[in-house]
Each structure stands twice: as C-alpha cells, then as structure tokens.
Write a structure and sequence with these properties.
Length: 110
Amino acid sequence: YDVLNKVPKETYFESSTIINLVKNHHERPDGNGYPSRISYARFDIFLCSYYIAEQIVLKLIEKDLKLNEIASVYEEVYKENKKYSTPNFNRAFDNFEKLIKRMYKWKSSF
C-alpha cells in the first residue's frame, strides 16, 4: 500500500478502488483482519468479491480439486459465509453464482 502511494499520480491508474483493495486484502469479515480490523458491514463490493474468490481458491488448493469442481466449493463458501448478509456480500455472491452457472451450466442447490 505504501508503495502505491509513492507512485506519481500521472503515471498511475488513479483508482481509489484498487488502492482500497490492496490496502484491505487482509481484512476478514469477522473483524479479525488487518490493518484496520474492519467488519463485513464496511466491506465494499470489490472487497467482498476478493474475499469470496480468495476463499474459493484456497479451498480448491487445500482439497486438491480441479476448477470444474468450483460449484461445490462455491456452495461450501456460501454456506460458511452467508451470515455476512449485506447488500455488497449478497451482490458478490450473486455475481459468482451467475458466473459459475454461465461457465459450467450449474444449477444451484439452494
């Protein structure tokens, strides 16, 4: 994050969204992340999407699954995190579900 602040603005893609995502990518919805310990209610749509994607990828790696098994992993991540029900989290989950349906012709079981 500090490095991004040192890049001259005229050569940098001036985007507070990207800067916020880089700054907050270690935050966790339960408030136990860092550097700011923000809770899920303050996650914007981009941070929600990043968090969900990260959880999916970590589970795919942990279980040594293939990408075509993403639907079952998505369902697991959704069930573990549906308690974080905010408009931003709900939109992010909806967007992932639409993407997976489009890619794998998957029908949600919930």
